[in-house]
Amino acid sequence: MGVRLPSKPASDLWDVLISDGRVASIEAHDPRAPRLSHLPGVLDASGCLLAPSLCHAHIHLDKCFLLQDPKFADLQIEQGDFAEALTLTQKAKARFEEDDLLRRGRQLIEESIRYGVTAMRAFVEVDADVGFKCLDAGIKLKREFEARCHVQICAFAQLPLFSGPDGGETIRELMSEAVTREGVDVLGSTPYVESKQEGTQRNVEWIASLALKHDKFLDLHMDYHLDKTKEPFVWEAFKILKEKRWVEDKGKMITLGHCTRLTHFDDGDWSKLREAIGDLPVSFVGLPTSDLFMMRTEEDVRGSLNIPKLIQKHELHGALAVNNVGNAFTPHGSCDPLAIASLGIGLYQTGTKAGAELLYGCISGRAKAAIGLPSAKLEIAEGDPADFVLFDNKGPEWRSRRGLAEVVYDPPNLRKTVKNGHITTD
C-alpha cells in the first residue's frame, strides 16, 4: 500500500492488491485510512516506486565469477583480448565440477534476484570437455529457484558444430541429446566460430532444424566482429530460417546476441534488414559491457548495437543484457541489469526522460519479450503478473526515486523483489 507507479503522477500514491499471483486491483491510496502494515500480507511501501521486474535476456551461468573464485585464481587477464579470453575460459572449463558450477551459479541467481530479476535466459555450454556438467548444474539450479526466478536454460554450443578435429560430430551428438533433457528451453550456438563460411551456414541450418524439431527457442551469437570488409552473416541467417519455414511451422522466438558488425549499418541497411526479417519472430540483444571490452578499439569506437535507435528509428525488437559477470570476457560489472540501462544513458546519448524509460523497458518487458516470455509494459495494470521490483527509499524525501527515469539515472541499492505476488528477497 502507498506505492508510486511508473505510469502515474509522481505525487500520487496507490494501493495495489495482489491475488493468485496477479494484480487484482489498483486504487488511490487514502492517507487517512488506518495503516494495515501490521497485518499478514500487507506491505506499507511508504511512497516507494513499484515497477515491473527485471530480466536477464542473456547471461552465462556456468562461466560467472571465474576471476573471483579461488579455484581459478591463477587464470587472470594479462592481454585483455578475445583470444586470451577464449584460452582462459577453456582452461577454466577443464576444471569445472558440479560443486563449483552450483556454487557460482547459485551466487549469480541470488544476486540477480536481489537486484530485481524474476526471469533469465541462462546459457550453459555443452561440448566434449564439459559434457553435460554445465547443463546438469543449470537444470538443478532452475529447479531450485523455480519459485523465486524463472530460469530459462539454453543448451549452448560455444564451440564449432562443423569445424575442429572431428568436424564437430561429437558436439552435434551431445547437443542432440541435450535438447531431449527435461528442463532445456532453448538451443544456442555461435556460428561465427566456424573456420569457413560453409561451416557457418551449416551451423545455422543444423541448430535451427534441431530447435524446430523439438519446439525450442533459438539463440544465436551472431556477427561478433567489426570488420567492414566482411559481409554480415545475418542476411544468410534470415534466408536459412525462412527456407526452414520457421513461421509456417510455428517456430518460437529467435534471439540474436552481439551482432556488433551491424553497428556499421546505415539507414538503408537497416531498412533492408527489416525487410529481410519479415514475419520472423526476431529480437536483438545488445551486450554493451562485453561488446565494448572485447570489440571497441582506438580505430573503431562503435563496439555495441545501439538498441534504443534500433527500436525507435528502425522499428525492430531489442533488449539489453549483462552477458558475463566476472570472467575474462567481461571482468567489470555486476549482475544488475539496471547498471546496463544506466550505462546506456551515456553510451547511446539517451538522457531524456522518455529515453531513460525506454532503457528500463530494455531490461524489463522488452527483455522478457526477447526470450519469448509475456511482455510486461511499463505501466502496471489489473490482471498483470505480480512480478515487481520495489525501489526502497531510505534516504531523505528529495532523494527518493519517484519514476523510472530517476531509477535509471541513479540506480538505488535497496530493492525488494516480488515474484508471483511473494517477496523473494529479505
Automatic annotation (TrEMBL):
The species this protein was found in: Phyllosticta capitalensis
Gene3D superfamilies on file: Metal-dependent hydrolases (3.20.20.140)
Residues spanning the signal sequence: none
SUPFAM superfamilies: Composite domain of metallo-dependent hydrolases (SSF51338), Metallo-dependent hydrolases (SSF51556)
Annotated protein name in UniProt: Cytosine deaminase protein-like protein
